[in-house]
Amino acid sequence: MLLALSTLYAGLAHAADEPDTPLQTVTVTGTADSDSYTARSTRSAAKLDLSLRETPQSVSVVTRALMDDFKLDNVNQVLSTTTGVTVEKVETSRTYYTARGFDIVNFQYDGVGMPVVFGNVQGDLDTALYERIDVVRGANGLMASTGNPSATVNFIRKRPSASPQASAAVTLGAWHQRRAEGDLSGKLNDSGTVTGRAVLARQESDSYLDRYAPKKTVAYAVVEAHLTPDTVATLGHSYETNRSKGPMWGALPLYYTDGTPTDYPVATSTSADWSRWDTTNHTTFAELSHHFDLGWSAKATVSHITDKSDSDLLYVYGTPVKGVGGGLYAYPSQYASSQRQNLADLSVDGKFTLGGRQHDLSFGYGWSQSTLQDVSRYGQGIGTGMPGQTAFDGSYPKPSFDASTDGSAYEDRRGTAFLAARFNLADDWKLLTGLNRTRARSSGQSYGTSKYKSASKTTPYLGLVYDINRTLSAYASHTAIFNPQSETDASGVPLDPVEGKTSEAGLKAALFDAKLNVSGAVFKTRQNNSAEQAGMVGAKAYYRGVNAASEGYEFEASGALAKGWEASAGLTRLTALKGDQGQAVRTYVPRTTLRLNTTWRLPQLPALKVGGTLAWQNAVSIDQEPGIRTTQAAYATLGLMARYEIDRHWSLSANLNNVTDKKYLTSLYWTQSLYAAPRNGSVTLAWTY
């Protein structure tokens, strides 16, 4: 891969040296912000290009530099380093995310919403496709199709450049990890009006978990064409496959029949030798943007997404007998699903004059159609006892999957119109206000129960920013919450929509010419009927609606603390997360989290960059049977990195994770869990042009 890229770019470099090529002067790769851990502006909160200080909500930005420094090659790793976000990895292949006490269900790609209407996130989602990832905490009532008080995650894809750019890297890591990736960008015609970019990544490894061996392939291509000086058309496609041998379906039982907690070796798994879980994602998108006179612009986006999953799995349930073994039972199943989403989004933004002042306006409409078809073929022998330690050695024989069949076939449609205006009330007062009108409908069947629902609501948004001086601002915002949900109760009936309201206020500062952004916020949320797992029917979880109130505060700093010293740090504290009667709810959510990522380029040896990452959370728990509570004590994990730039093109880096070899459970979101990876490391050789 390195040789191929070097050969190709030798040709491009030669072309760039031709006298009639005006772009040769922009091939210098070093920029002032190339190592930055912050961003000067974002459109993730209002589709208006606002600085972080002008945005009346808490916003975290995970830049490409941060991802590269700490080898954050998947979305779980990125979000686990982000202020206020908790990654609930319930299995090897399924994950939930929470923020401010509630599930994150709003995801966007380049600002276009992608409803997660069928539950959790599957697979090991790679980050090679993205330039950065924005996390807007609180209810993003303007840009998201549904308001939710947790957060909105906006994945910002890599885009082409007219100047030739390329990079490649090879990584070798613990448990025979092997990863190769390449990124190529440049103009596709002589004039540079058509540009393209391609990204490839391949990773495979064994695992610290017994029998688990994942591998994935990622490919991404995007082309931009400047049809006129003011009109740009973009077409892109991404492909990602995950092929996993020995994945877990469910996880480890957490207590014995005598009520005492289990304590297995970190590598323990309930998977069978024949278990597998394969997922494939195709995403195609097309954009057309046009800039009009007087500062107005419009953008239309259409996307088509397919997710397919195919698996042979073994779920283990029951309560083990301490010192003897047994007490556990087998639930084998063969599962296949196909999800399709069609998305369309149109937005317009610009400026207008009123009362002698210039103001900003943004409005648009988004539409989505999501369909799911899945089938479960249950294996012979469900309920078979697993004596001794046979639940953990992978020896359960593969059955025929013809005991019975069940499945789903349903559709979800959503339409959202939004209007946002940013009024320049005075030199130091800005008012961001607007509304979001969403209608959500679904129809079909899921495992013998109806999935019909129809709900609509208009949610207002209000945000006020006061510039105290040129670097410091105070802000406050308020919005309503409305979120149809697909989780079902014990009878298989979908829960009613979540409703509520949330408010936030704080201070923001942009220091050192906006190279360092600092913020502090207090927030308060009331949310009714939020889904919380209430139990299991076989291998299928069922839920109940829980009313909850969340209050807390958070602090964050991101960017350059000094020349060569970058940092991203955040503290979140939930002072209250309670139900109607004042009782603690969602006890698996940590009430306090600390995230710290920092790197330092040595002044005496500027080719060397060193850094560390620290993540800490307080104790969490979950109630099992009456009188039995599982607790994960507070813990911290430490990571270290070092990178040496051999020359202007080559660098060698090393990363060490979980330095203290801390043993802890990945999540208590479910009544089962697994252990996180022990101490591990990797070495990467990278080339850039």
Automatic annotation (TrEMBL):
Signal is among the record's keywords: yes
Principal location: membrane
Signal peptide: 1-15
Subcellular location: Cell outer membrane
SUPFAM superfamilies hit by this protein: Porins
Top-rank lineage group of the source organism: Bacteria
NCBIfam families assigned: TonB-siderophor (TIGR01783)
This protein's name: TonB-dependent siderophore receptor
Source organism phylogeny: Bacteria, Pseudomonadati, Pseudomonadota, Betaproteobacteria, Burkholderiales
